[in-house]
Amino acid sequence: MNKSQRITLYFLVLIASAAWIVLSAEPNAAGTATTRAPQAGFSAPDFTLQTTSGETYTLSDLKGNAVLVNLWATWCPPCRAEMPAMQKLYEEYKDQGFVVLAVNSTVQDNPLEIPPFLEEFGITFPVLLDHTGDVTRAYQVRSLPSTYFINRLGIITEVVIGGPMSEALLRTRIEEALK
Question: What is the pLDDT confidence band of residue 17, given thresholds at 50, 70 and 90?
């Protein structure tokens, strides 16, 4: 292989590599590369959802509070296992500015199962319904439960994918978010 053939070969490999990089990027609906999942140190994606009783909550309206956003479903065993600890710690810390927003991934759940679930566990914190899956997509949820601890400034301090979370882990993360 002479020098001009090697240069041509290297040039073709370079073009093929560049084409592979461009073509392998996962586009979103807007045609641009996908954004990163919400993570610690970044602002929490805002959302507005309704509770089972029709009350509306907007995450950004809760700035000044420490917020735990938990995405869950009634059929999810780890979700069921961690709910009692979340309820207990909500009762313990709510007077210090701690809010739990339990976002039911309603597109993956049976809405008729939610009221008996809440009654079974004595849930008193807001349970929001994600009928369209917009919040699930915004938070790029791939596994339930997915939990986001958000400080008083609206910044995510911790992300916990999967579960169940222990009471000790919850307490530590809540106290960090309350600072």
Answer: low
- How far is residue 20's CA from residue 14's CA, in Å, rounded to a whole number? 10
Co-location of 167 and 131 in the same domain = yes
Q: What count of other Cβ atoms lies within 10 Å of the Cβ of residue 18?
A: 10
By DSSP bridging, strand 98-104 and strand 66-72 are parallel
Q: Do residue 26 and residue 96 come from a single domain?
A: no
pTM: 0.78
Q: Please name the amino acid found at residue 174.
A: I
Task: List the domain range (segments joined by +) for residue 4.
Answer: 1-34
- Give the count of alpha carbons within 13 A of 61, CB side only: 7
Percentage of the chain beyond pLDDT 70 is 84
Closest CA to 117 of 179, 52, 28, 178: 52
Per the structure, how many domains does the chain have? 2
3-class DSSP state for residue 85?
helix
**For residue 53, what are the CA distances in angstroms to 56, 68, 75, 87?**
9, 20, 21, 19
> At 118, is the pLDDT very low, low, confident or very high (cuts 50, 70, 90)?
very high
Q: Which of 79, 81, 60, 80 is nearest to 71 (CA)?
A: 79
